[in-house]
Amino acid sequence: MNIMDFNVKKLAADAGTFLSRAVQFTEEKLGQAEKTELDAHLENLLSKAECTKIWTEKIMKQTEVLLQPNPNARIEEFVYEKLDRKAPSRINNPELLGQYMIDAGTEFGPGTAYGNALIKCGETQKRIGTADRELIQTSALNFLTPLRNFIEGDYKTIAKERKLLQNKRLDLDAAKTRLKKAKAAETRASIWAEEVTKSEQELRITQSEFDRQAEITRLLLEGISSTHAHHLRCLNDFVEAQMTYYAQCYQYMLDLQKQLGSFPSNYCNNNQTSVAPVPSASPNVIGSSALTSTSGLVMTSPSNLIDLKESSGSRKARVLYDYDAANSSELSLLADEVITVFSVVGMDSDWLMGERGNQKGRVPITYLELLN
């Protein structure tokens, strides 16, 4: 029975406190009650914490979109995370594309130029898919997790203490209001003297509790600077993970481009003109002027090459890159070897006739550097 009485009294006291805060808050909004302002330093800390929370949420959500563009996959991962279960592994887009290319190349025949090229492209896409998976895992661990821990941990604690500070401030101002009314009534009736004493005691208590809560909140908010320093380290880790990922992808594509250099870009239509393969752009490629093709690859159109094609003479040329002949009409090349080249009437502008000893064949001009 005593416990029930205690619970009822506590419930009544809590209800009274809540009502008092509600009345104080309403009167403040209506301009009918005074409000204790927080000091400027504390206000700045509160503003900094709120700004940090807003931008951390935006950066975190957009990073998740960047790493996983599929919204359904993100929802599934979120559900599994809340259930504290590991999400099932799924094939990503580069891996799926790579598998399709490999299957298509196998269907067309690995012995054909197109089939072989598809298989090589598919293998590269699968390697990119693996690198993409590693980027997601590293970024989630070193970047997203610390940001999420701040939002769901540190900031929730700050918000809780901030709300508590707001309640203590309302209690303080309500006590000030009651004391002010008691003193005004005391001048008219001596019976209010006891109420004034009670209100003064209540004010001292609420002031002490407010000051204590303000200090607790201030200490928590001053930790935001440490949070920024920690997030900066996490950001460096994220940038490093991206740098590793893009460097891997660049190297994979560079290797693929070299492998595809041995395949003519169109071979299946005999009525179409052969196009010479284009190696990586280099400042030493034939001549001085360069034209950028619509695919972003650098093509050369040098004046000395034009002179050579218009003349019937021959020139020495140094080979810049290895080249595997696609058929018997072409000549295989080794980097840094010197061969003789000359033009043949009617030959495509991207090709020259190359000669090495008794061997002759067409060679792509982008693989050559004419020698004086």
UniProtKB/TrEMBL annotation:
GO CC terms in record: Golgi membrane; mitochondrial outer membrane
SMART domains per record: BAR, SH3
Biological processes per GO annotation: apoptotic process; membrane organization
Keyword Transcription regulation: no
Taxonomic lineage of the native organism: Eukaryota, Metazoa, Chordata, Craniata, Vertebrata
Residue ranges annotated for the SH3 domain, each copy included: 312-372
Protein name, UniProt field: Endophilin-B1
Chief place of localization: cytoplasm
Keyword flag Membrane: yes
InterPro entries, per the entry: AH/BAR_dom_sf, BAR_dom, Endophilin_SH3RF, SH3-like_dom_sf, SH3_domain, SH3GLB1_BAR, SH3GLB_SH3
CDD domains per record: BAR_Endophilin_B1 (cd07616), SH3_Endophilin_B1 (cd11945)
Coiled coil: 158-185
Keywords, alphabetical: Apoptosis, Coiled coil, Cytoplasm, Golgi apparatus, Lipid-binding, Membrane, Mitochondrion, Mitochondrion outer membrane, SH3 domain
Record-stated family: Belongs to the endophilin family.
Location in the cell: Cytoplasm; Golgi apparatus membrane; Mitochondrion outer membrane
Record GO terms (molecular function): lipid binding
Bilayer topology term: Peripheral membrane protein
Domain BAR as annotated: residue spans: 27-269
